[in-house]
Design goal:
Chain lengths: 172, 157
């Protein structure tokens, strides 16, 4: 069904692209937010991703690879934005509102710990753990060998565990 | 398969992304090797912690808030209209025999008349007279208007 929408959108059916955008906008927004931990930046990158995916849709040769393709656009934009930017402390608005979420302490700790990983480590952790992507897909999105992705995930997870345990979290 | 080889494959193993035969081989090793088993459990534990505590973009439910604010706005408007009706259609009457003031409210607009103003002016309540004396010029100027128009005019002062 999704491939059909992509095909129809490629043929100029705007309604088909609307359907795709409606499905993918929140997914990409969550992905970019988890990778950048900055809501303002996440919104901007997500919107540019949607715009680029619309105008570059003709360049996608295989509609079934739409997911990998759109993640790649978003990821490139994330790295473009983060490349020259020094790590900043999390803005208050970007931190989960503690009183409104269950397990807020753990979530807050994870968010802060993720913020201490390198951009590439965090992106791989987010893709694997939250987006549930295969190693092959992540490697394709990041244009890197699978072995590099696995090593980066391993290191990222180890670091997270160490940070969280260092803050006194048990059973991490 | 030795420990070194298993540790290299561990990350793919916990996500079930090894070829079936290799997946089985690593599983067998984990049953007998305490060190690799502990390493595996440690990775699974952090993955579960992350998965059990999803972080999502703090998207504000704009639509929901808008709906509430619309309902509230309607409420404020209704309350405002009722208040205006209650105040602007109120009638003060001074009874000279019992020497008392009577206040009546009506939900229907009515026209103010000269006699009513005179009643107010003839009243013995000095404080109230002072207030009305202060605004008498405006009352006279808008003599033909009905009462709520007049009050609106007073509120602007």
């Amino acid at each position: 069904m999704r491939e059909e929408w992509v095909l129809r959108a490629q043929q100029g059916d705007k309604k088909a692209f609307d359907k795709i955008a409606r499905e993918w906008y929140p997914k990409i927004l969550n992905y970019v937010y988890r990778a950048t931990l900055n809501m303002e930046l996440a919104t901007e990158i997500t919107q540019i991703t949607m715009v680029q995916s619309y105008f570059k849709l003709q360049q996608l040769r295989e509609p079934r690879y739409f997911a990998t393709w759109i993640y790649k656009i978003a990821t490139n934009l994330i790295f473009d934005h983060l490349r020259d930017k020094q790590r900043e402390p999390l803005a208050l608005d970007d931190i989960i509102e503690p009183s409104f979420t269950p397990n807020w302490e753990t979530k807050l700790a994870i968010q802060q710990a993720l913020n201490q990983l390198s951009d590439k480590e965090r992106t791989v952790v987010v893709m694997k753990i939250y987006e549930n992507m295969k190693f092959r897909e992540i490697a394709e999105v990041l244009d890197e060998p699978e072995s590099t992705i696995k090593t980066r995930l391993y290191n990222g997870l180890k670091k997270l565990k160490q940070i969280l345990e260092g803050w006194g979290m048990k059973e991490v | 398969m030795d420990c070194e080889a298993v540790k290299e494959k561990l990350i793919a193993y916990i996500f079930g992304e090894l070829p079936e035969s290799v997946q089985r081989e690593v599983g067998e090793h984990l049953k007998v090797c305490k060190s690799c088993n502990a390493e595996c459990k440690s990775l699974v534990s952090i993955v579960n912690t992350l998965r059990d505590n999803w972080i999502s973009a703090p998207i504000k439910k704009v639509r929901h808030r808008t709906r509430i604010s619309v309902i509230r706005s309607i409420g404020y408007v209704i309350a405002g209209v009722l208040l205006v009706l209650a105040i602007f259609n109120s009638r003060f009457h001074y009874d000279g025999v019992t020497q008392s003031w009577e206040v009546t409210f009506s939900m229907l607009p009515r026209t103010v008349d000269e006699q009513y103003i005179q009643e107010v002016l003839n009243a013995r309540d000095e404080r109230l007279l002072a207030v009305f004396a202060e605004i008498i010029g405006q009352l006279e100027a808008r003599w033909a208007d009905n009462f709520y128009t007049m009050s609106l005019y007073l509120e602007r002062r």
